[in-house]
Amino acid sequence: MDNTRPFDVIVVGGGHAGCEAASASARIGAATALVTMAASNPGTMSCNPAIGGLGKGHLVREIDALGGLMGRAADESGIQFRMLNRRKGAAVRGPRTQADRKLYREAIGRLIDAQSGLLVIEGEVVDLLVEEGTCRGLILADGTHLRAASVVLTTGTFLGGVIHIGDQCYPAGRAGEAASNELAKRLRALGLATGRLKTGTPARLDGRTINWDAVGRQEADPEPVPFSLMTDRIDVPQIACGVTRTTMATHRIIRDNLRRSALFGGHIEGVGPRYCPSIEDKIERFGDRDGHQIFLEPEGLDDDTVYPNGLSTSLPEEVQAELIATIPGLENARILQPGYAIEYDYLDPRGLEETLQSRAMGGLFLAGQINGTTGYEEAAGQGLVAGINAAHRALGRSSQTFGRGDAYLGVMIDDLVTRGVSEPYRLFTSRAEFRLSLRADNADLRLTPLADRLGLIDADRRDRFTKLKTELDQARALLMERNLTPNEANRHGLTLNADGRRRSAYELLSRPTIDLQILSTVWPELRAIDRKAAELVDIEAAYAVYTERQKSDIASLDRDKAISLPEEIDFQTIAGLSTELVEKLKNFKPRSIAEAAKIEGMTPAALGLLIAFTRRHG
Ligand code: FAD
């Protein structure tokens, strides 16, 4: 059956990548379809009920700044907002919230339903329509043909998915949902490079059977900070989590049964996430310590299900029950659903352009866990970029990519398409070389003007952003216009170097001991600055010296990237390069500084040596 009405863009999968991709594409004005196995599943959280965190929170802010869904949905469903690393610098603070699973799904569902130009179609995609090497649409299990100029695949853990619990295994995309086997076969047959990865999830517990008096508590922040520029305040009731620890008895049970774990018993060939290890992994790698911390996270306000964060496992169900009973507070906890590991196909992201379009097949875009990443935020970020570019391709517009100096989105996609993955990829702030500039607080300032040019945001967001930007500009001007000599500062109780130099109030904010509140005692008119603008200008001024330096580093990196390396270069003769890097350079044979910069482990110092060598011998 050929559905004659072609779409501009078809997105396959209603997970975090798919929803952002479909919404972005429709916001831009492309006629978009979202095809997913169950029309009720958009926004389903397969694993932990939480959004954000270190690095991931930055992504949520960037997605929001580009008009995306995740931040708004998290604000409507967040039941425990916490700013991680609050005492550290603003660049590495990580906004996070635990989310009510049902409320999150409903919020995403509402946003998808309200989006004009976006049609949700329930069905399983079993094949791609490929003509002359270009993807022109897809085929559903019922034989329907759907045509489009661009197709975005965001099938998560479903391609060839196999669930493992102990030595039991069965095909599934995640608990209770069928795997996507036909499409997996077809993608392999098309010659796209695939591999196997795995991830795991803990058992779910009945909160009514947990002894909450025997465990510690972790409270939400007293003043929850929303993710989205569009949210004035969080109205969802905030709850506390429980905190407990594994014991020596837990570890003994795990050790005694290690060979029965799907992860250790040789049943799984895929590589697992180093940064989200199973409890078996933790005991093997880090030993007993004084126990491993477990957070008991309620999955919703009117849901008794509890997610024991830190207990991911693929041990047999009866062993899971035994080990859980050795953890304080969980002695009588009832298991609602056992933990499991899932193994699935991913497609090598090195086969993608920075737009997330396949190099081998025009019209085919890939985003999310299918590209070897893990996490809702990583998936959503890629979905947004793939959705923009799929729509641009369909509408005949030029592509839109993000650099490493622009956004964490750029860092992640550059890492994926140039280095590939050897284990599920997760974003960290440490992956960004320009992290002092790429802060969560300034995501709107960095990206919303671009989103406006691309047609990704509505008038409401434009107005809010313009208001914020005006207030920030005014605050900056107020601070720049006011200044003090060290003697004048002294009279106000501020200690400065006695060099006689006048310093602006803006400059004074770069000192760790001075903030806007202190300066308001000198210039009371500063109290009139809007709260949000005050917070932004305070952080901006504190980082100003470093971000200026980073701007010139980004500019010079862009310039130097164009330098080509001589074809016959003996890296061993370059003094100062480590043996490890010499080996990598020999294998990788970069043709330019840009290519050399992408080698894993490459440092700015080593790049400097290469640039100097090339200038001498080039
Ligand atoms: P998904 O959210 O998986 O969505 C895929 C969508 O595609 C679904 O809507 C599905 O119905 C649809 N679909 C698939 N095939 C087809 C088809 N052929 N036709 C139509 N529709 C199709 N992340 C972490 O950060 N930490 C963790 O500890 C963690 N543990 C996890 C444990 C498990 C068991 C699982 C399953 C996932 C875990 N994740 C974890 C990963 C997290 O769930 C994913 O990274 C995230 O959901 C990926 O989003 P996605 O949009 O790529 O895919």
Automatic annotation (TrEMBL):
PROSITE patterns: GIDA_1, GIDA_2. It comes from the Bacteria. One of its GO terms (cellular component) is cytosol. SMART domains: GIDA_assoc_3. Keywords: Cytoplasm, FAD, Flavoprotein, NAD, tRNA processing. InterPro entries: FAD/NAD-bd_sf, GIDA_C_N, MnmG, MnmG-rel, MnmG-rel_CS, MnmG_C, MnmG_C_subdom, MnmG_C_subdom_sf. NAD(+) binds at residues 272-286. This is tRNA uridine 5-carboxymethylaminomethyl modification enzyme MnmG. The gene is mnmG.
